[in-house]
Design goal:
By secondary structure, the chain is α/β, with parallel strands linked by helices. Helix content is about 35%, strand content about 25%. It contains 7 helices and 11 strands. It has helices at about 35-45, 60-70, 85-95, 115-130, 170-185, 190-195, 215-235; strands at about 5-10, 30, 30-35, 50-55, 75-80, 105, 130-135, 140-145, 150-155, 160-170, 205. A 7-stranded mixed sheet has the order 5-4-1-6-10-7-11, sandwiched between helices. Strands 2-3 form a two-stranded antiparallel sheet. A two-stranded antiparallel ribbon has the order 8-9. Strand 8 (about 140-145) and strand 9 (about 150-155) form a beta hairpin. Helix 5 (about 170-185) crosses helix 6.
Length: about 240
């Protein structure tokens, strides 16, 4: 039987760093909400069988009527209420994943420039090794700076990578890691940390510098430039 993959899209953040009343995942980029760009790639990917979207409870009806239905995101089978933190939203969505699922993929709603290549490669790596993330090797020189703003040492950047999403994991590994973290009140900024903390190795698939996370107003400006460049190259 073919391996089954479910994608979770946490989109319940308030986006306070953007400084406006609209949650960042619903801000427009290229005329469409950020989350729509991410969902479009996951919908088109042959590696993804189902999508579960976690959003603010107050926005659940809006997401169904204004995003999922009009864009014919038929793979979105469930819209669930998110939690106070990203980790809570992922856990809530994960509770809706069926036992028949082999691989769970997680992608941030505010990373609009993921590609089919990233999705297929990270899912394939997770099937082969149990867990994998998209990441970028560090390019800048890294300095360790003391409290007095004086450089204490230069860190070797060769083994350093910047984590991105999508990230993909064996369902049983991810479920156990989230349950353990919730019970022990361990908090993490990404799911790979929890799986590592639970004792499992996590592999890396090289990502892209365009796979930015939109968290600040300047990121949206950069995103518009990337989107415009992609539109030009498609003509």
């Amino acid at each position: 039987m073919r391996s089954r993959t479910v994608a979770l899209v946490p989109a319940a953040g308030r986006g306070l760093r953007m400084g406006g009343p609209v949650p960042k995942q619903f801000l427009a980029l290229g005329g469409q909400p950020l989350v729509v760009h991410a969902l479009r790639v996951l919908q088109a990917s042959p590696a993804v069988d189902e999508i579960i979207l976690a959003v603010p409870q107050s926005e659940m009806d809006y997401c169904l009527s204004h995003l999922v239905t009009p864009h014919r995101f038929t793979k979105v089978t469930k819209i669930v209420p998110g939690g106070a933190e990203r980790q809570d939203s992922v856990r809530h969505a994960l509770e809706e994943v069926g036992d028949e699922t082999d691989i769970v993929l997680i992608h941030d709603a505010v990373r609009p420039f993921l590609t089919e290549r990233m999705v297929s490669e990270v899912v394939a790596a997770a099937r082969a090794k149990g867990a994998a993330i998209v990441a970028l090797p560090m390019k800048d020189t890294v300095k360790h700076v003391g409290a007095d703003h004086v450089i204490e040492r230069t860190i070797d950047r060769r083994p350093l990578w910047l984590a991105q999403t999508p990230q993909a994991f064996r369902r049983d590994w991810l479920v156990a890691a989230h349950r353990k973290a919730h019970a022990e009140r361990v908090h993490a900024t990404d799911d790979a940390y929890l799986v590592e903390w639970a004792g499992h190795p996590v592999s890396v698939v090289e990502g892209s510098g365009e796979n930015i996370k939109v968290t600040r107003p300047e990121d949206l400006i950069i995103g518009e430039a990337i989107w415009a460049a992609r539109q030009s190259s498609d003509r």
